[in-house]
Design goal:
By secondary structure, the protein is an alpha/beta fold. 36% of the residues lie in helices and 27% in strands. The protein has a 7-stranded mixed beta sheet, sandwiched between helices. Helix 2 links the parallel strand 4 (67-72) and strand 5. The chain starts with a strand and ends with a strand.
Length: 183
């Protein structure tokens, strides 16, 4: 099994940390992992993306032009990465701020209203964990216990008191993900 993922959105949405948590989760399962971030000089507010590869086999290159999964969190990323999803792949997106929704018919498309859910949970910082939960519901490539271990590993210890809230957000994302188009 090899899963090649692009996570893309604005800096400050937790794009890179979501990728890091997935990568650590794969490590906890003794899988081969690649985590390659890319972001503009603006950081917060600019665009950011991260490529994550989780595999049972050795990873030849972290550089990809096509992905099994695209997790899209803003319109610029939708414009850039919708076409890079391999036929039969998965596109998961938050509709907040998306004006041109995905139109492809050769991929599976799901939506998670993560911004609204994070607001409902009264914790905007859990936005990325709602998205991660939705993804893991659709593609449980890492075990839930390893996701929590990955969360602990990626968060500085001074923020470990936030882990229970992040767990609630992950489970919430698993519950609210919606199918838009399925092959």
């Amino acid at each position: 099994m090899t899963e090649e993922i692009i996570i893309a959105g604005f800096g400050g949405q937790g794009v890179l940390s979501m990728g890091k948590i997935l990568a650590y989760s794969g490590i906890m399962q003794d899988q081969e992992v690649s985590w390659m971030p890319a972001y503009g000089p603006e950081m917060r507010g600019g665009t950011a993306n991260v490529t994550v590869i989780i595999s049972d086999d050795r990873i030849n290159s972290p550089v990809l032009n096509a992905y099994d999964t695209a997790i899209i969190l803003n319109q610029q990323s939708m414009d850039k990465f919708e076409e890079t999803v391999k036929p039969g792949g998965l596109l998961l997106y938050d509709p907040n701020g998306i004006s041109h929704h995905p139109t492809r018919k050769d991929i599976n498309i799901y939506q998670v209203e993560a911004a609204a859910e994070a607001s409902r949970l009264k914790s905007g910082k859990t936005f990325n964990m709602v998205v991660l939960g939705a993804y893991l519901k659709l593609h449980p490539i890492v075990e839930y216990d390893n996701v929590i271990k990955g969360l602990k590993k990626s968060l500085p210890e001074r923020y470990h008191h936030l882990i229970p809230m992040n767990e609630i957000a992950i489970k919430s994302g698993m519950e609210i993900v919606k199918e838009i188009h399925k092959l």
